[in-house]
Amino acid sequence: MNTEIPIKSRSRTEFINITGEVQKTVDKSGIKEGICYMFVPHTTAGITINEAADPDVVSDIQNELDKMAPYSDHYQHTEGNADSHIKTSIVGASELVFIENGKLRLGTWQGIFLCEFDGPRNRKVWVKIV
Ligand code: ZN
Q1: What is 2-129's CATH topology?
Q2: Ligand 1 mean position to 65 CA, how many Å?
Q3: Concatenated DSSP letters for 60-79?
């Protein structure tokens, strides 16, 4: 089963918790045991799994990524979003989570985040459940 989750980001950098949306997709699939693949088809937005309980964690990740790829740094790509491309490559474009008893099997503190690095924009996550 393939589906697409539309996501609207509201700021240039934003980590959007999409765990609930992904779980809804799993619910609709009716699959109780399997694998949920998520793929972000963008070059300035990615996906990651990390702590969803304390919002300071994603803030810290964003701040450290800013240090690794600052907004302005004599980049050759002059579109004004070179840092966004670099951050996207660091976090990656895909994740997978096991499905057990119809539920995403995540760790207690884990959440799935769409990582926006060049918003606000309309984004999408492709989800394949097998
Ligand atoms: Zn660009």
Answers
A1: Jelly Rolls (2.60.120)
A2: 17
A3: HHHHHHHHHS-S-S--S-TT
